[in-house]
Design goal:
mainly alpha, 57% helix, two-stranded antiparallel sheet, rod-shaped
Length: 155
């Protein structure tokens, strides 16, 4: 089931807040900024940057913080007002689409009832009262007799 925009935004803010707290605990204000940015990027909606940022590869972040500020292999300067949009779907999104496709295509198609089936249904409905007890249960051998009688009527 798809999330509403409000639910998606709330989830995005919670993720950003949590990662900002973790980043702040590990690397102070810079870590908090990076954590908040990461939380916002994780969201699945378009993001407009409100201030300039410098993005570095995630696997090199620890080296920058723990090893006395080692310089990352590359950095990207993101200007204020630039837009971040998801280009490639994540594996989770692809799996969700596959599940939705499976659920929609798994409905069995109903076969069209034939003329004989329609005649039999009508004949059985008219015959079954003769083969049932007053309380609505079948007499002994009543169902089998009703089926045979209905088939005879359809010939």
């Amino acid at each position: 089931m798809a999330r509403s925009k409000t639910e998606a935004a709330k989830s995005k803010v919670e993720t950003a807040s949590a990662l900002a707290g973790i980043g702040g605990h590990i690397a102070g204000p810079v870590g908090a900024g990076v954590g908040a940015l990461t939380g916002l990027i994780i969201g699945d909606q378009t993001l407009i940057f409100q201030m300039p940022y410098i993005a570095v590869p995630a696997f090199e972040y620890y080296g920058m913080v723990a090893n006395g500020g080692h310089t990352p292999s590359h950095m990207i300067y993101i200007k204020e007002g630039e837009v971040l949009t998801q280009v490639i779907e994540t594996e989770a999104q692809e799996a969700e689409e596959a599940i939705r496709a499976d659920n929609s295509s798994s409905k069995p198609t109903r076969k069209k009832t034939t003329a004989y089936q329609r005649k039999y249904k009508k004949a059985f409905a008219s015959v079954k009262r003769k083969h049932m007890k007053a309380n609505g249960t079948w007499k002994k051998g009543g169902f089998k007799a009703a089926v045979k009688a209905a088939h005879r009527m359809c010939k």
